[in-house]
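Amino acid chain
________________
===
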Amino acid sequence: MTRARVTFTLALACLIGACAKTEATTAPADTLETTLTYGEQRAAAGISLVLASVEEDSRCPTGVTCVWAGNVRMKVNVRDGKGTVLTLNTNVEPKTADVSGYRVSIVRVLPPAQAGVVIRPSSYSATFRLDRIR
């Protein structure tokens, strides 16, 4: 092999090695949010959540003056091999639950309450916040 060919081959090998895919190891996020529709299962931070039911929705309807904001109480199934069921509220305790190293809470519930409108269970979605417990 000529010296030029050896130099070219080595340069090419270095270039290919520099472009090779590397596995990045990242620590779990300290805080993340995930939105679930009614009955949907989604994994976040290694925890699989299912919005199982809406037990109560007493939120103040938009455009109405109320004494208090109301509350939404939801059951959330955790697929953790233990059959864990979380009961979470937006405005009364318990507002949070700890599972698998994260504190879970409800951030937002849609659709907003409207006067005279009954929301079907399948119409609900909720955004959950997961804060890593230190």
Remarks:
- Helices lie at 3-19.
- The chain has one domain: 29-132.
- The longest helix spans residues 3-19.
- The radius of gyration is 24 Å.
